[in-house]
Design brief:
Methane Monooxygenase Hydroxylase, Chain G, domain 1; 2 domains; globular
Length: 227
């Protein structure tokens, strides 16, 4: 086996994941991880990236225990090589928080979401405007790959955190977070037809929740995300 074989496995694993061939994706990511560990050693951002992708795949397979293991290791590596204020660390931590949510480790999930979203706040939040959007929203036209923008990862974390709040019977906080995720996704994706389903899914979740509790505002206590 060669390093090039491992890199090919990594690319093919992404395709398998996208087409929901999860068994193939896991096997291919395992091969890629083995090759990357042999070439770079276990504490390297390429290994963390593979572990992160393994965690995402396990979450899509509804195997949160396996996801927790992969994402714990990914976050630890990113913390060591990139630092606790890095976007990559925050992305893995947010997925780890989602795994905790599925496992019903609610205290751990809230802490991980808080720490993750705090990083995104430090990188992207417009404190003067009290919004995730920049002063000039027209700058969206300059974003060529919106799915790779740090705000896209922030929106994922915020929307996933809403799931935690629902499990805690905090519907107003869930609504507030979904509204913020929707605002970000409209900013990033409104010009791209292939991403508009993401906007539609977020809006649908928000409408269903508001209908369920017969409330149109949801101004819950969400101050910790700015801390």
């Amino acid at each position: 086996m060669t390093y090039e074989f491992g890199e090919e496995c990594s690319e093919l694993a992404k395709v398998a994941h996208q087409t929901r061939n999860y068994g193939d994706a896991i096997s291919l990511y395992d091969w890629a991880l083995t090759m990357r560990r042999e070439r770079y050693g276990p504490i390297h951002e390429k290994c963390a990236a593979t572990l992160h992708n393994l965690g995402r795949t396990f979450l899509d397979m509804w195997e949160p225990g396996a996801a927790e293991n992969a994402l714990t290791e990914a976050a630890a590596i990113y913390e060591q090589v990139k630092g606790k204020q890095s976007v990559r660390f925050a992305e893995s931590l947010a997925l780890l928080a989602l795994a905790y949510t599925h496992l019903k480790f609610l205290d751990e999930a809230e802490k991980a979401f808080r720490d993750s979203i705090s990083v995104f706040c430090g990188k992207s939040y417009n404190h003067a405007k009290q919004s995730w959007l920049p002063d000039d929203a027209a700058t969206a036209v300059t974003i060529e790959e919106p799915q790779k923008h740090p705000l896209a990862s922030a929106a994922h974390a915020i929307a996933d955190c809403a799931q935690l709040f629902l499990m805690q019977n905090q519907e107003h906080r869930a609504i507030a977070f979904l509204e913020e995720a929707l605002e970000i996704r409209r900013y990033l994706y409104a010009r791209y037809n292939k991403y508009r389903p993401i906007i539609a899914q977020t809006l649908n979740k928000l409408c269903e929740l508001k209908r369920a509790i017969n409330d149109a505002t949801g101004g819950g206590d969400v101050h910790w995300r700015m801390s």
